[in-house]
Design a protein that fits this description.
Blueprint: E1 2-6, E2 16-22, E3 29-30, E4 35-40, E5 45-49, E6 54-59, E7 66-68, E8 72-77, H1 78-82, H2 117-125, H3 130-133, H4 145-166, H5 182-197, E9 200-208, H6 210-226, H7 235-248, E10 254-257, E11 260-263, E12 269-271, E13 273-275, E14 278-280, E15 283-284, H8 292-308, E16 321-325, E17 344-348, E18 352-358, E19 361-375, H9 381-396, H10 399-402
Helix pairs in contact: 2-4, 7-8, 7-9
């Protein structure tokens, strides 16, 4: 009996993916839970595993095709595993390979034109008859939401391709053309979305890192021994300082939803880390409830799994505030861009010795510029400046964080 291989749920707000690579090829035998196909989403790469042992009897969509959650990827023939692994799939089960664009539908002797519930609603909303869509790609020829979208978008497909054929760009001999990854396209779109939709403004301050560096130097070895290899870094102090400041200035930890402002009485802290495919922002849940060791452990784990490609989708969603540290790459000052729908983001930078006036005397101090970019629609200038000053106070005197001052 043939089993459908469907695009699984991909996480909060993720509805589409690109078929990056078929790990198994048509006709190959597979074991239960063995990876079949690799999907690339806006955030991470996801493997779809075989629901049971069998033979990959049909591949419905080729590599490079964009697919929706719940759409058909192929068929797994469990009976073929016990019989003849290379036998042809049953008639009507093996659909033709699809090229990118409109989805081709598997052959069916008697299409039912019966839509799935989500597809039925979309048909009704757009006043489209199911018979006009034809046989669907769902089980027994049922019409899916993706089939309706393909039908609605079909008339616009040809004009959309016309500009590219009209005047193709001529590459120069020493140029190299590489297709943008899905992650890079998503980053570009989200950054532009933030610029277009938010009233972006950035306020700056500087922080003397002397106290935190002395604290780290004095307790680093004892901290690592006590917490079983977890290292004491600077990020945990900044995270704690931000959590304290966010409680005092809740607008910085809120978001706009239509005509409403949603205030968060918790802190899910996004920490920007670099991965092999670009920047990702995993989220420390309830960071305001964690101590320095818990924060440092979570950050170290995120950094390792970001490099290895092991972050999960649910770890990249739901953040209420973010921190990015361009200083690890040598940045002295920058204006970070919001991570929608959050209303603010803190930018850390390179620590640099500079002459400072302390008690009427010039001293050399390790200084760092801080930048807070915020959405001026929801955060007033006074709140933003006061928030950053509170972060500065917490970092310059970590005892305030322990005393909740």
């Amino acid at each position: 009996m043939a089993t459908e291989i469907l695009v699984p749920t991909l996480g909060e707000s993720v509805t589409t993916a690109t078929v990056a690579r078929w790990i198994k090829q048509q006709g190959e035998s597979v074991a239960a839970d063995e990876p079949l196909v690799e999907l690339e989403t806006d955030k991470v790469t996801v493997e779809v595993n075989a629901p049971s042992a069998g033979v990959l009897s049909s591949i419905a969509v080729p590599e490079g095709t964009e697919v929706e959650v719940g759409s058909l990827l192929g068929f797994l023939d469990g009976a073929a595993a016990a019989a003849k692994p290379t036998e042809d799939p049953p008639v009507g089960v093996n659909p033709p390979k699809r090229a990118p664009g409109p989805v081709s539908r598997p052959a069916a002797s008697e299409p039912t034109y019966a839509p799935l519930p989500s597809a039925a609603k979309m048909l009704a909303d757009n006043k489209v008859d199911a018979a006009d869509v034809g046989g669907g790609t769902g089980k027994d020829g049922r019409i899916t939401k993706g089939d309706v979208l393909d039908f609605l978008n079909r008339p616009a497909a040809a004009p959309a391709q016309a500009p590219a054929a009209k005047a193709p760009r001529q590459d120069q001999p020493r140029e190299q053309r590489v297709k943008m990854t899905r992650l890079r396209r998503t980053i570009a779109n989200r950054l532009k979305e933030a610029q277009n939709n938010a009233a972006l403004l950035t306020t700056f301050n500087e922080v003397d890192m002397s106290a935190i560096m002395a604290l780290r130097s004095e307790y680093r070895d004892a901290f690592e021994k006590k917490h079983k290899g977890v290292r004491l870094g600077f990020m945990s102090v900044f995270v704690r300082a931000c959590c304290v400041a966010l409680k005092e200035f809740p607008a910085v930890n809120s978001e706009i939803d239509g005509d409403d402002v949603v205030y968060k009485n918790f802190v899910h802290m996004g920490i920007a880390v670099g991965g092999p495919s670009g920047l990702v922002v995993p989220v420390i849940r309830d960071a305001d409830q964690l101590g320095f060791a818990g924060i440092e452990g979570a950050i170290a784990d995120f950094g390792k799994r970001a490099r290895d490609g092991g972050l999960k989708l649910d770890e990249l969603t739901g953040g209420t505030f973010s921190i990015t540290n361009g200083g690890i790459y040598g940045s002295l000052m920058s204006t970070p861009i919001l991570n929608p729908p959050q209303s603010a983001i803190l930018g850390m930078h390179k620590i640099q010795d500079r002459p400072m006036v302390v008690g009427g005397k010039i001293e050399i101090r390790p200084m760092m510029y801080l930048a807070l970019s915020y959405d001026h629609r929801i955060v007033d200038g006074k709140e933003a400046v006061s928030f950053l000053v509170r972060v500065k106070e917490g970092v310059e005197d970590p005892r305030r964080l322990l005393l909740d001052l």
